[in-house]
Design brief:
binds nicotinamide-adenine-dinucleotide, 13 helices, binds zinc ion, 48% helix, 7-stranded mixed β-sheet, alpha/beta
Amino acid sequence: MRIVNVPLGNRSYDIKIGTRLLERLGKQCAGLNFGKRCAIISDANVGARFGKAAQVALKRAGFEPMLITFPAGEPAKSLKSVQACYDELAAQRLERKSFIVALGGGVVGDLAGFVAATYLRGIPFVQVPTTLLAQVDSSVGGKVGVNLRAGKNLVGAFHQPRLVLCDLATLVALPLREYRAGLAEVIKYGIIYDAALFERLERELPNLLRRDTKTLGAVVARCCEIKADVVRQDETETGLRAILNFGHTIGHALEAISRYGKYLHGEAISIGQVAAAKLSARVLRLPEAEVGRITNLFTRAGLPTSVSLSLTQRQHLVEAMKLDKKVSSGELKFVLARRIGQVEYGQQVPARMLAEIINS
Ligand SMILES: NC(=O)c1ccc[n+]([C@@H]2O[C@H](COP(=O)([O-])OP(=O)(O)OC[C@H]3O[C@@H](n4cnc5c(N)ncnc54)[C@H](O)[C@@H]3O)[C@@H](O)[C@H]2O)c1
Ligand SMILES: [Zn+2]
């Protein structure tokens, strides 16, 4: 088992990465000074697969778990689900020391984390991420929240988990398309922070694609270390944390104009990162050879790297970028790469240059 600590003073916690961690869930929670009662929040797919094992593990350690599940998919990340959770928690009399276990992908993690952040003004929670995206990204860093009809993640809080358990064995069941989408975030860490990780991914992609646990363990741990390092320096995103959004301005806009159906998040940011790399070549002189390596790695991972849009769609794309909540005072700013492993945030890109990249 690998352990990565997220050092945030009295809100510090460990991310534990390995196999057969789900069956040790109870034991892992035992040292954390929680009350007996707890709620596992999950979705239908993950609940059916791993809900029982989580409950058994918690009971064995003396906890009294209840299981709340929602239909799988983004629509579960809603205030309606939050309300349903509050009602269940109150009916089962969960109190201040009770805790929540988020068992699932990013949807479940964001929803369960938001419930934990707000029920009784905040109770502890544990993340048990079961998608690659959730293990390397959404379960770490304390951003929790739900969607409104007006847009994604518009209601939320910062609430750090008390523990993150990444059981690599759960990833075996993940559909290939979801797994590849997670690789888009993995590759992102190489580009923004760690050239050696990027090289490792170039070398070991075949092992990763067959979900080899040894390779996965090392790679997931490195991604978590990077995220922890960024979050430690800028927990509430006043500056540096923005680098985690490399490729996301274009990616989010693409998700928005395709109404969150066509592309998975990872696919949209794969296209977004390749576009950001091309912008980087113009603005920060990222060498063309590195743009090529970036494009090639996403392609080898089975991810899309370009999209053909009609003129109207291109206009909508730019409008959607301006609506992204990370845009302040209407100015489009990007995270751009100087070279693989080093990026700069807050980079202004002339509208004309952006249009050229989008049109190409
Ligand atoms: N809080 C953050 O910092 C942060 C960061 C990135 C993304 N997010 C959020 O994460 C969400 C996306 O998360 P996601 O990509 O994990 O999607 P997801 O939670 O919808 O999971 C994807 C699909 O895989 C299924 N699944 C999950 N684990 C499985 C397993 N082990 N075996 C078989 N099937 C499994 C789920 O039921 C679902 O159908 C978005 O809502 C996004 O906004 C949050
Ligand atoms: Zn992302």
